[in-house]
From TrEMBL:
Protein's organism: Bowmanella dokdonensis
Keywords: Carbohydrate metabolism, Glycosidase, Hydrolase, Metal-binding, Signal
Enzyme class: hydrolase
One term of GO molecular function: alpha-amylase activity
InterPro entries with a match to the protein in the record: Alpha_amylase (IPR006046), GH (IPR017853), GH13_cat_dom (IPR006047)
CDD domains per record: AmyAc_bac_CMD_like_2
Positions of the Glycosyl hydrolase family 13 catalytic domain: 54-455
Catalytic activity of the protein: Endohydrolysis of (1->4)-alpha-D-glucosidic linkages in polysaccharides containing three or more (1->4)-alpha-linked D-glucose units
Enzyme Commission number(s) from the entry: 3.2.1.1
This protein's name: Alpha-amylase
Length: 566
């Protein structure tokens, strides 16, 4: 805008300031952009609209005791194998009964919290005995598999076959995914593994299924034969699925350079897509080289275009995990581990500052192909559960469901279940129907449902660009802006993680016009140059929404930079 026009507007602004007796900046420059409406969008991927509830299939709810197989395993039993601490605390490394029926019976509970996708631990067939090799696991132990079972699902044996602990009569995986989608509007995320099978060596005697892999017809196609990796014979057809170097403890190390391994997993996981899987979570993705994932993702997406995948690259270096997101490496999203580290700290420590979250966002010039497609979380089954107060969980959810990324919440977090515990201290303990009933009225769950509903209702919170205004101390303020395919929506998010009500007065990037608070329905009609003032209660959230195109020059410049460099 020309200097003469700014001079012309100045007396008007002074008059408004005097009349309304509020502190104001000079009127923002009004956009004079002509031509097509610019596009402002964080991501166009449909999966960005989802919120994901992560559950361990065996540890969720036992809906059908008839599939528990409590007598399975003989000398190496598999059901209910407690690890007990000296003070009486318990964990468990046996099966505990969770199944598809338990998931379906509680799909309403999950959907009412605002989740639209369920990620379950792997459902493929695992060995039928506890592992007799390795080092014995004990309460609080780590990196030991002796005495454990495949209750977690990550010790696959036949990747085309569902494990017998999960289906019920009339409820196989296909029926489960269909019922979740048709009755509850819930997608199913399949947890997949390609870098390892089951524990494969160090057993006193070779146990059935351990170190073995079967094809769709049930034919044995690979067998470690209880031999250490360096003892395997590359000329033996049953050994050719495996590397001759160890990787993770006694797990078989699958040979990613063997085309037959790639063919096997493309076929196996395509089969589960045919059964209704809507996305993949990829276990231990960093243990398999990029060339494998590029070939795998290209072949999957040739059959199922735009199929969403996100990997577990357990590393806190954003530059490292971001490599998976690049097109040349397969364009696979990742769980945001740097974000997890920051989020868990900030919301576990009341004196921490929102400023500590700034670094992991990488909204511009970052290493990720697209930061808005990352799956964001604060804990899971492989690490200590977040050790926060109820208010800390509420604050964490307010942040996760309004800031950039696709939120993922681990089962039980809706009531702070087993907070602070690691894997063999209670992190993976059985959740069960009784806890679900207690969780229904828990304050964490009530607040989670409210903020998840906001994200569900507002496309800007799902896919909009994030423009930070204030991340400091106990307060955060940022915009999410979406201008794409006929949607023109700006959401101003105000967060307070403090113990007292706080007042916000926002003028940066603020457009004039009609603003409505998304939960209460309150409105403010803002004139040019006014600020938006609001009080946010302790551990609360307020989201003000303006419909219509962006017509604020400073905001347009900022959005243009974000679009160019996200």
């Amino acid at each position: 805008m020309a200097a003469s026009l700014k001079t012309l507007f100045l007396p008007v602004l002074l008059a408004l300031a005097s009349c309304q007796q509020v502190q104001q900046q000079a009127q923002p420059l009004v956009s004079q952009t002509a031509g097509p409406t610019p596009e402002y969008v964080g991501t166009t991927h449909p999966f960005a609209a989802e919120a994901v509830y992560f559950l361990m299939t065996d540890r969720f709810v036992d809906g059908d005791p008839s599939n528990n197989h409590e007598d399975q395993g003989g000398e190496y039993p598999t059901f209910d194998l407690p690890l007990v601490a000296g003070d009486g605390r318990q964990a468990n490394v046996g099966y505990l009964g969770g199944d598809f029926k338990g998931v379906l019976d509680n799909a309403g509970f999950i959907r009412e919290m605002g989740f639209t996708a369920i990620w379950m631990t792997p459902v493929v067939d695992n060995p039928d005995e506890a592992f007799a090799g390795g080092e014995p696991i004990e309460f609080g132990g780590a990196f030991k598999d002796g005495g454990k079972t495949g209750y977690h699902g990550y010790w696959g044996v036949n990747f085309f076959q569902v494990d017998e602990h999960y289906p019920s009569e009339g409820l196989d995986y296909r029926e489960l995914t269909r019922a979740l989608k048709e009755q509850y509007g819930i997608k199913t995320v399949l947890d997949i593994v390609t870098n390892h099978g089951s524990p494969s060596f160090s057993m006193p005697l070779d146990q059935p299924k351990f170190g073995e892999i079967y094809d769709r017809q049930g034919k044995l196609i690979a067998d470690h034969q209880n031999m250490a990796p360096e003892q395997l014979d590359p000329a033996n057809p049953l050994h050719q699925f495996f590397h001759t170097q160890p990787d993770i403890m006694q797990l078989s190390n699958l040979d990613d350079t063997n085309p037959a391994v790639l063919d096997y997993f493309v076929d196996a996981y395509s089969y589960w897509i045919e059964q209704g899987a809507a996305a993949f979570r990829i276990d231990t993705i960093k243990h398999v080289p990029h060339h494998f994932w590029k070939a795998f993702s290209d072949r999957i997406r040739a059959r199922y275009p735009d199929f969403f995948m996100f990997g577990e690259s357990y590393d806190y270096n954003a530059n490292f995990i971001a490599q998976h997101t690049l097109e040349k490496n397969g364009n696979i999203s990742v769980l945001d581990f740097p974000g997890q580290q920051a989020i868990s700290k900030v919301f576990s420590e009341p004196a921490s500052s929102f400023a500590e979250l700034q670094g992991y966002l990488h909204l511009t010039h970052g290493p990720y192909a697209n930061p808005y497609e990352l799956t964001t979380f604060y804990d899971n089954h492989d690490m200590a559960r977040m050790d926060a107060t109820d208010e800390g969980f509420i604050d964490a959810h307010n942040w996760l469901f309004t800031s950039r990324g696709i939120p993922v919440i681990y089962m039980g977090s809706e009531m702070g279940y087993m907070r602070g515990t690691v894997e063999h201290q209670g992190n993976r303990n059985y959740y069960g129907q009784d806890n679900i009933e207690m969780a229904r009225e828990h304050p964490i769950r009530r607040n989670l449902a409210r903020v998840a509903a906001l994200r569900q209702q507002l496309p800007a919170l799902q896919r909009g660009l994030q423009v930070n205004v204030l991340l400091e101390g106990q307060r955060a303020a940022f915009y999410r802006v979406l201008q794409h395919q006929g949607i023109e929506q700006t959401a101003l998010v105000l967060l307070n993680k403090g113990d007292e009500t706080t007042t916000f007065a926002i003028d940066q990037y603020l457009q004039a016009g009609h603003w409505q608070e998304a939960q209460s329905g309150e409105t403010q009609e803002l004139e040019p140059g006014q600020h938006l003032e609001d009080q946010v209660p302790a551990h609360g959230i307020r989201v003000w929404v303006r419909e219509g195109p962006v017509k604020h020059a400073e905001l347009e410049r900022k959005l243009g930079l974000l679009m160019a460099h996200k």
